[in-house]
Amino acid sequence: MSDQGLKRKYGPVDLGKVRVALDAFKTEMDGIRGAAEEELGSISEHILALEDILDYAKEPTRFTFSTVRLEDLEKAGVVRKYLFIQSTKVAELAKSLTANAEAVVLDLYSRIKKIYSYVNMDHVSGPRMILDAILLGVAEMASDEQRHVAILPGMTIPGEVYISHPTSGYELCVSGGNLDYAVVEYKNIWDNKARLLTPGGSDVMRVILTRPNSWLFLVQAKYQSLDRSFLDYVPEALSQAIAMLEQANLQKARFCLSDGQHWLFFILQLENGTFVYYESARWYLNRNRVESSDKELREIVVLLCEWLRPAANDLFTLQ
């Protein structure tokens, strides 16, 4: 069993309790009389070795999704690589939509233009209107008689996730929290819809476990300023992806980071016990681009559909 598997099953060791048990054992050994000197010497060596381990070991550094930094994740062994999306393939997919998808995109394009015409984008609520509209369009495009899509805003990721460097042993702990948006495809039967869409439902983990390749989540880059840029939200999105992998016991997660105008696409994989994430170049959907053409909107919607339900070949390469 891998170290990752052990961590999932048993969680972190309580070093304080180990120290107390060791001290109690030493006290008991001090009271032993008549034991062979050789045996006592061997036991003492083991005690000293365990004390050295405890002196070196430390409780993991604790973070939340919003406070963890990229350097913290890298220090814990998370590896960054690159995702190269083939723009010609995306353009080809965007031009070959079904009649239903074409109608959805045209309606969505009109809606996005209206949002940009009437809504200020300086605060969180404005960009969220863009994200809401686009995800609703994706749900319409991806749903049919057999399969439907559920959007789960604010889905909770319970518990904690521990990430440790395989060589240095540095470990951090990220507390659970809420996803901005989880998007899940499910078989179109009443029980699934009831679990996912009725109040008190949101049994998303069960659906993800039964269809591990048909879900994605999106993190909104919220309060941007001179002190915090769009890219500063990558660690928040990445730590949420790691938590989802751990909670659902999966090997891969697809996710996005966006403020409505800028889009990054990611794939996170567990490779030989190491978390490796692949990051795309930035895609754009700002006011000026939307005013001149629906091309960028079509391409982003196509990418989101592919991230939800991978179908196209040669869409990207991982390096």
Automatic annotation (TrEMBL):
Source domain of life: Eukaryota
Name of the molecule in the record: Uncharacterized protein
Source organism per UniProt: Pholiota conissans
